[in-house]
Design goal:
alpha/beta; 3-stranded mixed beta sheet; binds nicotinamide-adenine-dinucleotide; binds thymidine-5'-diphosphate; Rossmann fold
């Protein structure tokens, strides 16, 4: 039975990925290592508690003793590394924790994996998937071609720079030690369980509460939006079928300006909840994010051509599904907004999970 260590599995993409594994790889053992920072929410996978194929471990990817003891206790032969500090605005305010988690945490994991897999007789069937972002490539101008896996790195924010540093460490392990890593660089995700500091859930929260919706600058920055389950399927495909040592871009080909995206969101929400009135009145232009990247766009020919992956959910479908989920899970949203979800952590896990 394969045993996969998923890091950051209580976060947005990680929890969707663990759920996908639970449904589609029922014979896999999943160990979820998560520090449950403000972005981690143990409630996201509360229904899996008690399942013998799912083990939750409350711990830090940058803690050498915690990580090596996991490799000693479990026969881990696959790692999918999602754990990270992920919000660009927070990285501008407090870069240190991004360096610690994203750079030192990734080093700790790959070194612990390398050591454990060597001790156990070599790499064999082992695989390490390092989950990264399109932000490492930096900003594109309006007419630039989308970035390929060979485009140079040019990170702008401390977040992007910490992810780029981690990517290069992983690449160095591939080159120097033949470490069986794969890297994915993905565009902006959206969907259920996203923490409401990121644009889409933030807009929904503010609109539901009749509060201002902050648009940075003129709202003309462009992002490519991928529904989260499409990212999770791509990650699983790369883990199982990708060539070790390779990098794969993952994107939707759904580029939109922020203002256009917000108008679409408010249009759908307004249809579903007409009593909220004219939601566009809430749009408020605020000073731009320092160093704000203008545009990200990815060339995803490689993953489509070599692994046959392509997104299944269009932006129009994905936005409707996302809005419907947040409307049906306003209790989740309220517990996150009020900090109530932290109390669940105390009750469920404190002192019992190490
Ligand atoms: P998230 O912020 O929702 O979740 C991060 C998770 O990591 C949380 O559960 C948190 O508790 C955990 N974590 C943080 N520090 C930790 C530490 N030191 N040790 C253990 N766990 C820790 O993030 P997300 O949006 O789900 O992103 C997951 C990964 O995907 C990240 O590596 C991110 O760079 C990458 N990514 C995200 C996007 C996106 O649009 N969200 C796009 C491309 C790539
Ligand atoms: P975000 O969801 O933070 O993702 P990223 O910065 O990683 O792309 O932001 C998406 C886009 O939305 C980005 O161009 C910044 C912009 N934005 C706003 O205009 N207002 C906001 O309140 C937030 C959080 C983001």
């Amino acid at each position: 039975m394969p045993t996969v260590l998923v890091t950051g599995g209580a976060g947005f993409i990680g929890s969707n990925f663990v759920r996908l594994l639970h449904q589609e790889r029922p014979h896999w053992q999943v160990v979820n290592l998560d520090l449950l920072t403000y972005a981690g929410n143990a409630e996201n996978l509360a229904d899996l508690a008690g399942d013998p194929r799912y083990i939750f471990v409350h711990g830090d990817v940058a803690d050498w003793d915690a990580v090596t003891s996991l490799f000693a206790r479990h026969a881990i032969d696959r790692v999918v590394h999602f754990a990270a500090e992920t919000h660009v605005d927070r990285s501008i305010l407090d870069p240190g924790v991004f360096v610690r988690t994203n750079v030192v945490g990734t080093y700790t994991l790959i070194e612990a994996a390398r050591e454990a897999w060597h001790r156990d007789g070599g790499y064999g069937e082992t695989r390490f998937l390092h989950v990264s972002t399109d932000e490492v490539y930096g900003s594109l101008a309006a007419g630039d071609p989308p970035t390929t896996e060979h485009s140079p790195y040019a990170p702008s924010s401390p977040y992007a720079a910490s992810k780029a540093a981690a990517d290069w460490l992983v690449r160095s392990y591939v080159r120097t030690y033949g470490f069986p890593a794969l890297i994915t660089n993905c565009s902006n995700n959206y969907g259920p369980y996203q923490f409401p500091e990121k644009l889409i859930p933030l807009v929904l929260c503010q609109a539901l509460e009749g509060k201002p919706i902050p648009i940075y600058g003129r709202g003309d920055n462009v992002r490519d939006w991928l529904f989260v389950t499409d990212h999770c399927r791509a990650a699983l495909t790369v883990l199982e079928e990708g060539t070790a040592g390779e990098t794969y871009n993952i994107g939707a080909g759904e580029e939109r300006t922020n203002l256009d995206l917000v108008h679409r969101l408010l249009g759908i929400l307004g249809e579903l909840r007409p009593e909220l009135g004219d939601l566009t009145r809430l749009i408020t232009f605020v000073p731009d994010r320092p160093g704000h990247d203008f545009r990200y766009a990815l060339n995803t020919e490689k993953i489509t051509r070599t692994l046959g992956w392509r997104p299944r959910v269009s932006l129009a479908q994905g936005l409707r599904r996302t809005i419907a989920w947040y409307l049906e899970h306003q209790d989740w949203l309220n517990r996150v907004r009020t900090g109530e979800y932290r109390r669940f952590l105390e009750q469920q896990y404190h002192g019992r999970t190490k």
